Amino acid sequence: MPRFTSENSAVADDIIARYPRPRSALIPLLHLAQEQDGHLTEEAMEHIAELVDVTPAEVLGTASFYEMFKREPVGDYVITVCTNISCMLVGGEELLHHLEHRLGVKTGSTTPDGKFTLEDVECIAACSEAPCMQVNYRYFDRVQLDDVDDLLDDLRAGKLAHEVPRHGTLSRVRQRLPENRAGNAPPDRNVEPPWLARNRRGDSEGNGTGAGDGAGDGGAS
Amino acid sequence: MSDGAKHVPSILSTRWDLADGHTLGRYLETGGYEGLRRALSAMTPDEVTEEVKAASLLGRGGAGFPAGVKWGFVPPGVFPRYLVVNGDESEPGTYKDRVIMERDPHLLIEGALIAAYAIGAAQVFLYVRGEMALAQERIAQALNEAYDAGYVGQSIMGNEDFSVDVILHWGAGAYIVGEETALIESLEGYRGFPRLKPPYFPAAKGLYMQPTVVNNVETLADLPWIVSEGGAAFAALGAEKSLGTRLFTVSGHVNRPGVYEVEFGTTTFRDMLYGERYGDGIRHDNRLKAFIPGGASAPWLFEEHLDLPLETGAVGAAGSMLGSGAIVVMDDTTDAVKAAWRVVRFFARESCGKCTPCREGATWLERILRRMLDGYGRPSDVDKLLDICDNISPQITWPPKQTTICPLGPSAVSPIASAVMRFRDEFFAYCGGGEITVPVHGKAYLSTPPAVGASQ
Amino acid sequence: MTDTADTAREAPTGPSGRGSGEHVVTVTIDDRAITAAKGELVIDVAERNGVYIPRFCYHPRMRPVGMCRMCIVDIDTGRGPALQPACMIECSDGMIVSTGSPATRKAQEGVLEFLLVNHPLDCPVCDKGGECPLQDQTMSHGPGESRFVEEKRHFEKPIPVSDLVMLDRERCILCDRCTRFASEVAGDPLISFIDRGNDTQVNTFPGEPFSSYFSGNTVQICPVGALTATPYRFKARPWDLDEVESTCTSCSVGCRVVIQSSRNQVLRYLGVDVDAVNWGWLCDKGRFDFEAVDSSERLGSPLVRDEGLLLKSATWNDALGRAAASIKDGLERSGPDGLAVLGGARLTNEDAYAWVKLVKGVIGSDNIDAQLGDGLPAEAVLGLPAATIDDACRPGGTVLVLGPDPKEELPVLFLRLRHAVLNDGVKIVELASTATGTTPLAAHSLRYHPGHALHLMRALLAPTEAEDEVAGVAPEAIAAAASLLAERPVTVVLGRPNQAEGARSIAAAAKLINDAHPRVRFLSALRRGNVRGALELGMTPGVLPGRVTFRDGRDWFAGHWPTVPETKGLDATGILRAASEGRIDTLVLLGADPLADFPDRDLAERGVAGARTVIACDQFLTESVRQADVVLPAAGYAEVDGTTTNLEGRVSTLARIVTAPGTSQPTWTVAADLAFRLGADLGLESTEQIGQEIDAVAPAFAGLLHDLAAPGGEDGVLVSLPAQRNGETPDEPVEDPSAEPAAAATDPGDADPETTEPGPTEPGAVPGATESEASPAGPRPGIPVPDWRVI
Ligand SMILES: Cc1cc2nc3c(=O)[nH]c(=O)nc-3n(C[C@H](O)[C@H](O)[C@H](O)COP(=O)(O)O)c2cc1C
Ligand code: SF4
Ligand code: FES
Predict the structure, then answer these.
(1) Which helix (H) or strand (E) holds C400?
(2) What is the 3-state composition of chain C as percent helix, strand, coil, each rounded to the nearest 5?
(3) In contact, C432 and C405? CB cutoff 8 Å
(4) pLDDT above 90 coverage of chain C, percent
(5) Which member of B378, C42, C407, C750 has the greatest number of CB atoms within 10 A?
């Protein structure tokens, strides 16, 4: 049942705790769900709704705004080809058509074996490396047509497992918030940061530049 | 300096060629966190702001607003304040913030902390574009190292009263979220709908309705250098309003596409397109047809503009903008109608749908252009295109007016007006004659030969 | 405030929140200098001054979002004219607005053309056709012909988003009204924008329908035909609808409505925006209630019980004859006290007065009770300082809910309270034994043991003495709630939380806080539509019309009526008990169903069975009515004219738009006929004339007709403010800084936010005080501080 696994529920709680308001965790949690299931299931959205205390309709409203969230299953490898201006000028469309031909599917669909989903996307910020594409959001720059054939073979053969994790996984490193985190700044607590307070006073007393080691000055006015 | 020879210090690109430039170890070996140390030990927050003002550092995200001045807009006495780092880079043609985030993440973190110190931000949110998995990975790694080494979190670098968290956050695929108020809505867990300005200026009513400074990645990455070397040193580079160095992405039909750090305000477009250290000329020695000077939203420029310096004032006067520093070059083999269609298609696809003229208008424009390309254009279509443009961006002028909430809608007008006014025959070739009666006022659109019927 | 975007947290919603009135600014709109309150929206100020700026997304009762762009006009704030949405821009001094400039006109035409790009051309088959803002504004501000030759956006045709509401996404113009209403006003964000850009649609989460008590409002505010109400779809075209303005009597909030009918059939209610009451909203219960009006179950002719003990239809003449005869027998057998009347809380004020006059003024019995043992003693409803809804919602106050769940029983009151909590810093303290629909709004919801409200109230008023749990509530909770009560003006929403809570203890609790708290007022939370009016007019023992006790009113009424009862009579419980003991000869049921509603079913059965004769005046053959010997079919809602009184004591008009089934008659005529057959004359010939008599004899109602006729009178007139009546003025509101936007939260046009006089009557004035003999300048008779020992 694709609610969060207990392990991911813990991750979810950790994510929620980073924000002054739980709803801010909505998009990170949707990513977590997609990382877990490969796409967004209704159960996951309902679970997220519970976690951040909104309705499932609100979760869907946010999720459906963003292209990366797939509400239908997709291939193991989502290939996104940029056809925006910089890439188009140097062969982005040809690259896309070549892939359609090689994969035997139209843009926007998934190969019968469920391996590949092909999409054309807008600029992915690799314009000087055009024509470019991504596989599960890993870049492939200045792609020549015959490179593509090898790439597909390697992916099929699982040779690129290291460079290209399964769909849904973005950063493979999670930010840890260790003991020495400063803590959230809740919007409803009007507290002046100590280093500002200190320097205001500092100025008036004519001493104190910088944060110095304002020990004990923690209490903001 | 058409060979681009003059030596300029590299402020942003020093670690790009280091395989381990993204690690804390290498960052420290190469002078990392010295700017922050200086700010914390020797400067008050206000003094930092003053340095940034002295540097007259223009925002690098597109709007080009002076960073120091923007910081000054946060209302006094209202807390908490937030700093939001805009790493959503998605303006077509733009590839520079990603380079920084992937290859020198600590530089960005250090810059963000300096800004947080100066404006008194109690929490920093680093919003990275969703599709940039590697950037997210590198920043997550960098933050983990930085926390462990005490550069982020509690009592930063031993300063008991300077404690700030930097929270890595990422999007999920929506260009509009690059717009600062949409970014804030997104960060609050909502659809990426821009807020109306007025009344929702982030500096006063931003994240959670609190004072919020939104700065671009490159803008913040300049801060460590400015703090270490001084605002004056930064301001000594460049010309007019455009000082320091700046990253430009050159893409399209040039021999050497790339991301280049150049002196701002003095380097010319000719340098960028033809200088061998940069674009190194048009491919196959073709003729230049047009180039986009500042990202897809910018009106196109042409041969006669090549000797303009990369200077906001000068480019603005010519009727376009440097925007996000993205130069897209089109040679004479380019189909103007097709190029315009592709850029318009982008805006149509990325419209958030909140306001009517953009949601309906941009899509309509795209479908008319598509119809032309498919060979079903009608003589009246060119005029219709322009009139629809006029309903999105009244008077088709520059800087653009808008009937929309945010500038995305009007952005769809730039490529059409540029292409139609300059390459009208190509349009008429697609849809058999007709004439243009809709007045167009944008200077770049009208550049020689002056357009029939396009007079004031 | 967790359910809307931060921009909503920011922006006060609707005129109620705007224009603090503190500073006045001068703006120029179309060359006319106009003064406005700083902060008022250009679109509102323009409209108030006769300049209508077209709009789709803007709704005065919701947060402006500036999305549709239809209202963009040239606004010059010193930096030259620029196209700005009039619904977002607040008036500032020297601002120059041009709503007709060429730029404005071109832009508005453009926006309309854009909206029509994907709008289907199915107006001929669209329910909205004829009353469609899009259609109308296309005529007035639109382009000539459509230049759109591409294919329109396609969606599956209407899909149900709930049992009551259908959604046609092709017609939707994405104005965010329904979705804003759902999240911002109702607090049920179950519909949302889905997908993006040109593919954006409104929809629900799969398998989670838009089930809200308020869903019907989205249909009313949809500016196109995208949302339609299942009960109304394809029923009629706007142009062949008749309509009248009236008041909803499904509950005692008394929302103003427009009733629309066609061919003698009620088809639709629309909420009317009354500032003091419903702000244009209705609950679904009220809105779709009309299905009952022309139900096949309705009685169409009188019935009398024959020897075979079967109810057989009869003529009015026979039925009234039977009724009168049995009343006569009863009177001869055991005098006036042998007659008792139950019910009347769902009748008009005129019906109530006629029956009170018959029973108390002609027959001389005081055994009459509009409530069925499930309400509160009249003193607790009428005798305490009264609050209006606006008082309860005034910024900085605390609302103490000691009664049924407002969301369930008085839904639109819940909406008003919700708005006050989210926008105006009002705090709710709820005393409830179980979680309710209102609990999420409450600052403190105290779960106490049913039956112990009185103890809890005691503890709340003297928290220091509460060392340990009281009625199951922890001392900390009590202390926290107590401080909210102590430090702020308090409105008690007073009713019966549950049947375990006796009327006595609730009344006593009310008395406690009334005596202990300097700034407390009460808003009765009795359910039945006109229970307040019935009590005000004496349908309760010991009270004469106009909220007067026998002691105070005897002489006065002796001058107007043949007689006045000697002693205080029996209430519902007393009546049923007496009847069960054979001491009631004639029991009259006025739209009352004791078998269903009286808490003690067994006593109800014995009572109804024990009465020698039972006469029922009703619209339906209810369980109790089946037991009657004479059944008289009553005309009902939308079938009679008159007035009704809401829970604030606000009298407003009821209008007739269809004819009652069969030979049904207004209930007051039955009283008149019976009087006649008993050899008396009530002297009542029409509702108007009854109204005049009420106006003349019932002290608190003096001048009412005048006020109802006066401008603003259609929004209702308050008749029940002991505070004002006794010359005191209610407390000044305490400004809560956290509730900035809300000064004058309840009176948009009000130049002086300090004015605490609610409703349309002048400050301090006796409602409708005139020179008529009925309202002497001096203190008029009224209920003194009640004698609580008798309860
Ligand atoms: C449609 C639109 C897209 C934008 N995209 C970006 C973006 O991807 N990255 C960015 O830094 N700024 C973007 N901006 C500009 C931001 O709104 C904002 O001005 C900028 O982040 C401020 O940072 P700066 O002052 O340091 O430049 C965009 C603006 C608009 C209207
Ligand atoms: S202009 Fe376009 S992107 Fe901007 S708010 Fe309007 S619809 Fe959204
Ligand atoms: S009414 Fe103002 S934008 Fe819609």
Answers:
(1) strand C398-402
(2) 35, 15, 50
(3) yes
(4) 74
(5) C42
Please report the pLDDT score of residue C628 as a whole number.
97
Q: In this complex, is the C-beta atom of A69 within 8 Å of any C-beta atom belonging to chain B?
A: yes
Cβ–ligand 3 distance for C69 under 6 Å, the answer yes
Cβ B116 under 6 angstroms from ligand 2: no
pLDDT, tens only, C660-684: 999 999 999 999 999 999 999 999 9
**Same domain for B310 and B354?**
no
**Do B83 and B199 fall within a single domain?**
yes
For chain A, what percent of residues have pLDDT higher than 90?
86
More confident residue, C409 or C698: C409
Shortest CA distance to B127 belongs to which of B199, B35, B210, B189? Answer: B189
Helix axes B356-371, B379-392, angle to 10 degrees: 160
Q: Is the pLDDT of residue C760 over 80?
A: no
Say yes or no: C83 contacts chain B, CB-CB below 8 A: yes
| Four-CA torsion C560, C563, C566, C569, nearest 10 degrees | -90
pLDDT of residue C500: 83
pTM: 0.92
Picking from B82, B144, B159, the nearest residue to A211 by CB comes out as: B159
Asked if B39 and B173 sit in the same domain, the reply is yes
| Enclosing domain of residue B355 | 336-454
Quick check: C733 pLDDT over 50? no
Q: Best interface-test mutation with B: which of A14, A127, A207 has the largest number of B CBs within 10 A?
A: A127
Best C202, C208, C212 member to test A by mutation, with max A CBs in 10 Å, is C208
Q: Which of C625, C652, C571 is nearest to C257 (CA)?
A: C652
The CA distance from A139 to the nearest CA of chain B, in Å, is: 9
- Same domain, yes or no, for B124 and B243? no
C196 contacts A61? CB cut-off 8 A: no
> For C25-35, how does the pLDDT look when each residue is reduced to its tens digit (9 = 90+)?
999 999 999 99
Distances from the Cα of C622 to the Cαs of C129, C586, C633, C661, in angstroms? 41, 19, 12, 17
Q: Among A207-221, C202-216, C724-738, C739-753, which range has the highest average pLDDT?
A: C202-216
Q: Does C307 touch chain B (CB under 8 A)?
A: no
Amino acid at C670: V
| DSSP one-letter code for C328 | H
CATH number for the domain spanning B363: value is 1.20.1440.230
Of C188, C368, C144, nearest to C284 (Cα)?
C188
On whether both B255 and B269 belong to a single domain, the answer is yes
* Pocket residue to mutate for ligand 3, from C59, C63, C70, C176, most atoms within 8 A of Cβ: C70
Query: CATH no. for residue B301?
Result: 3.10.20.600
Q: What is the pLDDT of residue C293?
A: 67
Residue A9: its H or E element: helix A6-16
Q: Which of B331, B351, B383 marks a domain boundary? A: B331
- pLDDT tens, position by position, C146-191: 898 899 999 998 999 999 999 999 999 999 999 999 999 999 999 9
Tell me the two tokens of residue C516: 């202990």
Which burial class, exposed, middle or buried, applies to A71 when counting CB atoms under 10 A from its CB (0-12, 13-18, 19+)? Answer: middle
Nearest alpha carbon, ligand 1 atom 23? B215
**Residue B376 beta carbon below 6 angstroms from any ligand 1 atom:** no
What ligand 3 atom has the least distance to the C-alpha of C55?
1
Domain stop point among B331, B359, B388: B331
Asked if B262 and B289 sit in the same domain, the reply is: yes
Nearest CB to B403 within list C6, C72, C115: C72
Lowest mean pLDDT among A134-143, C664-673, C761-770: C761-770
ipTM for the complex shown = 0.94
CB-based contacts of A151: which residues, under 8 Å, 6+ apart?
A135, A140, A143, A160
